[in-house]
Design a protein that fits this description.
single chain, mainly beta, six-stranded antiparallel sheet, four-stranded mixed sheet, about 10% helix, disordered N terminus
Length: about 300
């Protein structure tokens, strides 16, 4: 009688399972665990804000996505899991963040048509694919990389002006950045990652001193400090206001390109010849230079700024 009861209970449980669960959640199969390596690498910013990330997985024995789910960026727990390793075959895993970005494509194709938001304040990262994995592989550990270019702006005085007693304050500095492309298409299942079909939509980003933009040619992009500038001498304000817009030309930026995963510090230096003549254009003649470094550099001229 007891055995009959157990068999009946088991039948009721199986009746409540989906076909996918019956195929991939056999008793004794190992649960798939996930981790985000960037949680442990404090010197990198990719997905370091704990953004939820999207995971796709393809099983070698399947004809549809084995996993198509969103994972918590801090706990690495899937919303619709848990998932279990198939008893046969291998699984390929792909991930990107933030999960709010939409990918398109019919299995097994996958692509992302991405457009930088109007405030250029969104980090977009893709993890290196983890392919050919099985239950013996252990936890699926993703490591994300930046797909955009990071642009920061700073203003300085020429040394001759500093020697003459002028003092520059850039508290609350803001800058506008004119770009020539705002979006493109990228495939998260194929490495090395590369943008294709860049659009020719120009945009101006405002209100911050740091932006995350579509990788593109730097030639023709333009930058202007729009706020947060004050110059004093002997504690008396000499100038405050915008600086002149600077249009970037060939040779100003390494390789004449804003490259994926790089951080560019655009340096606007107020020229020593800006002191002549007076009027509204005083201190408004600038020279331009740019430094390039990995996205998250802790030392040197490329000082990490808080991501907007």
């Amino acid at each position: 009688m007891k055995k009959i009861f157990i068999i009946a209970a088991t039948a009721m449980v199986l009746a409540g399972c989906s076909q996918t669960e019956l195929e991939h959640t056999f008793v004794g199969q190992k649960e798939i665990g996930f981790s985000n390596l960037n949680d442990k690498v404090t010197t990198r910013a990719a997905n370091d804000a704990g953004a939820n990330y999207k995971v796709y997985a393809a099983w070698s024995g399947g004809t549809a996505w084995f996993i198509n789910d969103e994972l918590n960026g801090t706990t690495n727990v899937p919303q619709n899991g848990p998932y279990y390793w198939p008893s046969t075959g291998t699984v390929d895993f792909y991930a990107y963040a933030p999960a709010t970005i939409t990918a398109t494509g019919t299995y097994p194709a996958l692509s992302i048509a991405y457009t930088v938001p109007a405030n250029a304040a969104q980090d977009f990262t893709i993890a290196a694919p983890k392919t050919g994995l099985s239950s013996s592989s252990g936890t699926v550990a993703f490591e994300f990389a930046h797909m955009l270019s990071k642009i920061s702006v700073k203003a300085t005085l020429h040394q001759d002006l500093i020697d003459a007693g002028y003092v520059l304050s850039t508290t609350g500095l803001t800058a506008s950045l004119d770009v020539q492309s705002t979006g493109g298409t990228i495939v998260p299942t194929t490495t090395p990652f590369a943008w294709t079909s860049p659009n020719a939509t120009a945009a101006t980003y405002t209100g911050a001193a740091s932006y995350m933009i579509m990788p593109q040619s730097s030639i023709g992009c333009a930058v202007q400090v729009t706020g947060g500038i004050e110059i004093t001498k002997n504690n008396v304000e000499i100038y405050s206001g915008d600086l002149s817009k600077y249009t970037i030309s060939g040779g100003n930026v390494t390789g004449d390109n804003f490259v994926m995963g790089k951080h560019y510090m655009l340096n606007l230096t107020i020229s020593e010849i800006s002191t002549g003549g007076g009027g509204e254009d005083i201190f408004n003649i600038i020279t331009f230079s740019a430094n390039v470094a990995p996205w998250d550099t802790e030392t040197g001229t490329d000082i990490p700024l808080v991501q907007p």
